[in-house]
Structure prediction request, 384 residues.
Amino acid sequence: MNDSRSATPNVKGGFDGDNAALVPPARDWVPRRQLPFLGLMVLTVFAVFFCYQLVQPFLTAVLWAIAFAILANPFYRWLLRIIRIRSLASGIAVAAVALVIVLPAVALAPKLAGDTASAVNSVTQSLGSGQWREKLSQVNALSAAINWMEAHVDFRELFHEIAYVLTTAMSTVLKGSVAGIGQLIVGGFLLFYLFRDQDEALAALRSLLPVAPDEADMLFCRFSDTVYALIYGKMLTAVVQGALGGVSFWIFGLPAPWFWGLMMGMLSFLPMVGASLVWGPAAVILALDGYLGKSILLVMWGVLIIAPIESFLYPILVGRRLKLHDALVFIALLGGMFAFGPVGLFIGPAILALTLGLISLWKERLSTARVPVAEPMRGESTAS
Prediction:
């Protein structure tokens, strides 16, 4: 007599009962062989997160240390060839960075803040009062253009907006600089080791990169060339142009030479016009105020001294290294400053250098990749 009992599912799989069907074995949500890998990954994520929590209070100091290490590395390398003692050369390099860069920045910050406020107030009062219209309307050739601009543009509101943007931007930069100075001790400590142990750090980084050794060398070379072209080419050229512009404002008795020199240095990254956006209107104001001789001299100074600096100085500083488009330089510097504060002037170029290096690596890989060509089938005639 057949047993009418129904088959009961077996958890472990197999047959249960006389006519039972094969029951598939139960599957784990995560295969046991993957548990060690997943556990290691979770542990690593937590470790990296807590390491970031440790570094986060000193993140500004870390970024400043990296920026100064990039900026002063050629000097450190030159010093190391003379002294040949890493620790001593690193200590001297850190002291030189403090004396040449940090202390002047601390000393000039209050002066720059005062000139910024003075320049913004002077421009706002002069333009907002309408004196500029009276002076420009005396020139017959400009009266029609002035009437058209007044009918389409609210200059008073525009001047207030410009003043607000300038004041906010400068206060943000200065506050960021002051906040960065508070962590200089930590930054100097880190900078010492970035100088002394950079070869070991680069070797460790090279071993971690998922690329071949020759590709890593190419990536580092491209990074070095890009940073050099940005910092020692464009930035030093802008510093010289801004300094010459500020000196011209001081010589001709124009207000806030520090502030306008800074503006000319920043605007020098703009193609074609550059620093002329500052000294050009200043020359017009001098002429309208009756100082025609000073106006002509300022124009000559801008055209013959300030403008040719880039074409003369940039090739000397950069040489045959990588040449960069002005748009990339402008975005890297100003975009980095707005994203990271004052330290972004150095971190922005570093990010751009890394990006361009990776793009160059991909181009190299794609150019060397060989696409197999299909061979003609046997018996197929190759004749057209």
